[in-house]
Amino acid sequence: MTKTAYYPFIDKLWLFSIIYIVWFHTPPRFEAGTDNIIWYIGVALFFFISGSLFHSDRLTAKDFVARQFHRLTLPSLVCYMAFYLLWVFFGRYHASVEDLEAQWYDPLTELVTGQPNLVAAPLWFIVTLLVIQGTTYIIRKKLPLSVLLLISVCITAFSSFIDINYFNIHFASVFFIWHTLGICFQHYLLPHVLTPGTPVKWITRIKAAGVPILAFQNYVIGCVKILLSALCAYDLTTAPLYAKFVVAAIAFVITTVTALVANEAIKKIPYQPIIQKKN
After folding, report:
1. Is the residue at 273 inside a domain?
2. Residues 218/251, Cβ–Cβ less than 8 Å
3. Does residue 165 form part of some domain?
């Protein structure tokens, strides 16, 4: 078996998605209808990229769980607990009425049920991704890709009838198809439409810090908004359009630097690589 080819374009697409997410969460916002469409496209792109990079054929169930824990669950838990402490002692007093009325243990309850909201709400994506990838792994171990595609279409078609909030199963049903389409792209089109190459180091470093970036960005944007609103003496949500891009750029830089530092700390935790590639 040969080593898997590396496609730098996927990393660049992922970088675009991260920049898009930070920019999307920066006010002023679009009209409600346009906002929803843009949000859906951006999130669908994330799941498509995740599917394009999803490799589980050579993993045992134990190895798959271990890899998911190290790559997604552990960074998410570290970020969540850090933001939980910030929320308890500081953040809730600068947020919404919902935060002020919440009990100190409510974010911990949300963590256990896989519904982050009060603390590090952007991590809903990671919870949803874990559900989708876990389900995909189970199906792919027994059934061919064509059957997975059929199941994904059915799940998405009936997603409006799925109203299970635990572990964001309702979101997983909506975006399941995009992750599967990413896998199909990886298996059938990737070698034909993209050219293999070498990694761009600075992009791969940002990509490696993906979970902390998703967790940090809303808080960083919030802090920047508070700061600029105080300095400029106006509500940033009604500021000129250029202010949105300024805040998004500042938030992206601060978020990335902070996330890289957090990611380096997480990497200190011992971990034995699972997949042994054969030449």
Report:
1. no
2. no
3. yes
